[in-house]
Specification:
96 residues
């Protein structure tokens, strides 16, 4: 199966542990040498009219259980453990 990053960004990310929607894919993390995607960067779903910035999570590729047409089911992620986003966007791949 192959898909574009643009197609990943349209998918909802859902935890199989509790069935909650974690958020949506906002970016990918790739290994530059191999060209393989190592993780998805997911932003939380904003609640109501909150002015709070959404939390960001790093979902390891190995924690993806199944990827469907509209959703990505993941394991081992807690909405209480946001990752620290270093550089944003595609340029993060080349910052090291």
């Amino acid at each position: 199966m192959s898909c574009l990053i643009e197609e990943l960004q349209n998918k909802d990310v859902i935890s199989i542990e509790n069935g909650c929607k974690i958020g949506y894919v906002t970016d990918v993390e790739a290994e530059v040498c191999s060209g393989k995607i190592s993780a998805l960067i997911v932003s939380s779903v904003p609640s109501g009219f909150s002015i709070k910035k959404p939390d960001t999570f790093r979902v390891c590729w190995s924690d993806i259980v199944v990827m469907g047409d509209e959703t990505i089911l993941v394991k081992n992620i807690s909405p209480c453990a946001p990752c620290k986003k270093q550089n944003s966007g595609f340029l993060r791949l080349f910052s090291k």
